[in-house]
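Action item from last meeting closed. Structure (292 res):
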């Protein structure tokens, strides 16, 4: 009996040893590109990792267990350099533009956000006609107005269409770097800018953080109120076979997760309460129905 089973036992031990000695296959990795644009992405402070982009990133990553997830926090210009190089990089929420489609694949919409506004100091309202809404083109045509933007950032196709006609003008200041939102708000409060183009949630967040909420107001941009293209952004990955594979998987995840309360609440947390009812209506009627 011993002699009959001994070779089989030894064979099993040898196989086990070889299995344990063989190196585990390393996971493919996805590098998530982030900018410092709270409350979309928050990397530091009291609300660290609680931005709506942080929450949605975790939801997506939890479903992509077969990948190792890394991240790089850098300015937007560096983001697009890595996308253009075809590296294994993605970003959780980018506006889809014809320029970007040349070097990126996009998912179905991953975010529904309120469209860009002009953020000003309350005391400056008379210079903007004492109106709650303005035409961006008219503001930019006024050479006595200094308006601040983030370099290489998209504000949605409707807003971008206007901005692109005026970029490089002497009354438009585009800045790059890490703390884009914060630096623009500091310049606004010091009187170096008359207004900032940004998202409403940015305005509320920065105003709260700087203790200046009662000093700021937002003006609706009339040109981005005719449709909802400027409300929708998507996950973007490099335009490579790898990027296409990741986007296909992310589309399945988004189709399942977007209808959950946790997903919707990630952005609602940073909204003015007065905006939530309208937001939920558009979320249900438009966002959940958009699959391209």
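Sequence:
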């Amino acid at each position: 009996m011993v002699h009959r089973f001994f070779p089989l036992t030894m064979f099993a031990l040898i196989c086990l040893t070889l299995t344990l000695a063989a190196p585990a296959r390393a996971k493919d990795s996805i590098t998530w590109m982030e900018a410092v644009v709270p409350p979309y992405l928050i990397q530091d402070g009291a609300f660290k990792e609680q931005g709506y982009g942080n929450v949605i990133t975790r939801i997506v990553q939890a479903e992509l267990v077969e990948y190792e997830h890394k991240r790089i926090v850098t300015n937007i210009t560096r983001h697009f350099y890595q996308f253009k190089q075809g590296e294994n990089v993605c970003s959780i929420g980018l506006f889809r533009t014809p320029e970007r489609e040349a070097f990126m694949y996009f998912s179905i919409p991953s975010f529904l956000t309120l469209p860009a506004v002009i953020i000003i100091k309350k005391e400056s309202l008379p210079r903007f006609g004492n109106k709650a809404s303005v035409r961006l083109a008219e503001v930019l045509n006024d050479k006595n107005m200094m308006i601040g933007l983030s370099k290489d950032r998209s504000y949605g196709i409707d807003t971008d269409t206007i901005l692109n006609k005026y970029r490089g003008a002497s009354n438009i200041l585009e800045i790059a770097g890490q703390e884009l939102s914060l630096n623009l708000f500091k310049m606004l409060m010091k009187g170096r800018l008359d207004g900032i183009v940004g998202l409403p949630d940015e305005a509320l967040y920065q105003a709260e953080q700087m203790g200046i909420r009662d000093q700021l107001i937002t003006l609706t941009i009339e040109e981005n109120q005719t449709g909802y293209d400027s409300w929708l952004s998507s996950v973007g990955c490099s335009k490579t076979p790898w990027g296409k594979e990741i986007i296909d998987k992310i589309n399945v995840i988004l189709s399942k997760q977007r209808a959950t309360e946790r997903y919707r609440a990630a952005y609602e947390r940073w909204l003015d309460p007065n905006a939530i009812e309208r937001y939920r209506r558009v979320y249900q009627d438009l966002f959940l129905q958009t699959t391209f």
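Note appended to the action item: The chain has eleven helices and eleven strands.
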